[in-house]
Amino acid sequence: MTVPTITLNNGVLMPALGYGVFQTPPDETRTAVTTALETGYRHIDTAAAYGNEREVGEAVAASGLARDDVFVETKVWISDYGYDETLHAFDKSAGKLGLEQLDLLILHQALPGEFDLTIAAYRALERLLADGRVRAIGVSNFMPEHLGRLLEATSVVPAVNQVEVHPYFRQPEVLAADAEHGIVTQAWSPIGGITFYRDGSHGSTLQDPTIGGIAAAHDRTPAQVMLRWHLQQGRSAIPKSVTPARIAENLDVLGFELGPDELAAIDALDTGVRGGPEPEAITREAFGREIPEA
Ligand code: NDP
After folding, report:
1. Shortest-distance Cα residue to atom 44 of ligand 1
2. Mutate to test the pocket of ligand 1, among 53, 189, 236, 251 (most ligand atoms within 8 A of CB)
């Protein structure tokens, strides 16, 4: 199965559908990523803060796949923001992943109260890009205001903004800002994981009757319908599962097409209720943690 690719704003090709490993314990990560690569995923999304970059790298190395055939994305944690600190964060991540060059390196969060530090971190990403250490750079959880401040102060437009997007939290204003600047929106919790693995004020997207009805009409599962919705609207999506049958299910989303009314019906499920932390409230005091050396 060949996953469609998205062309980033610097011409780099990225498989639209990737495989996420947030909350995958390090001792399960190698097996999970190996299963994903065997199933056909060619894009892995990890982060320094997930504590499993080393195991992702081991699985990629053991896969026997050519380096060019696997797109590896990781994120710099806020504790490593600052120009020199972020350059060193690259060394830590690349060292753990066992890779000379990363395909996509993004800032995990904006630090709204310390935006100078966020900009310094991004300037380090620009340096790494210029030096060929990374093929593309981007951000995560950046709201339009953060993007505006970043774009004013830096010269490389982020290739990707990875944000919470699922049928219950669509963030149309972020999607519009990304589109305006030619930034690919990459959906985290793309099947609404955060709506069911964390207590929230709303139920699970997997149980939603509208999504269930569309899934039944196509003889597909709710997860497949949600992933199809992202892909047809031009987003990248990075579903996570450690369950082999679900890993396969989430990749098997190419053989059907949702109609405009179905896409609109899913759009209309937006509750405006965020599952993840409020981006404006991210501080190093509250969320900082030391990222170990490679
Ligand atoms: P997802 O929407 O991918 O949902 C994951 C959850 O859904 C897990 O509990 C998984 O269980 C379950 N699941 C997976 N596939 C299916 C299926 N087909 N049917 C039923 N249940 C299923 O949420 P995540 O929050 O994990 O987001 C995905 C990725 O996004 C992360 O792994 C990470 O890479 C990234 N992310 C980034 C963030 C950021 O701040 N930048 C924040 C959060 C996530 P199981 O594994 O047991 O099968």
Report:
1. 188
2. 189
Q: What is the pLDDT of residues 236-246, one digit of tens each?
A: 999 999 999 99
Q: Among positive and negative, which fits the CA dihedral 42, 174, 74, 149?
A: positive
Lowest mean pLDDT among 6-20, 44-58, 74-88, 187-201: 187-201
User: What would the two tokens of residue 75 be?
Assistant: 């994120």
Q: How far apart are CA 137 and CA 160, in angstroms?
A: 7
Give the residues surrounding ligand 1 with Cβ less than 6 Å away. 20-22, 45, 108, 140-141, 162, 188-194, 197, 206, 221, 223, 238-243, 246, 249-250, 276
131, burial (CB in 10 Å: exposed 0-12, middle 13-18, buried 19+): exposed
Sole residue written with tokens 């504590």: 51
The fold of 5-193+234-240+273-287 is: TIM Barrel (3.20.20)
Domain locations in the chain?
A: 5-193+234-240+273-287
pTM attached to this predicted model: 0.98
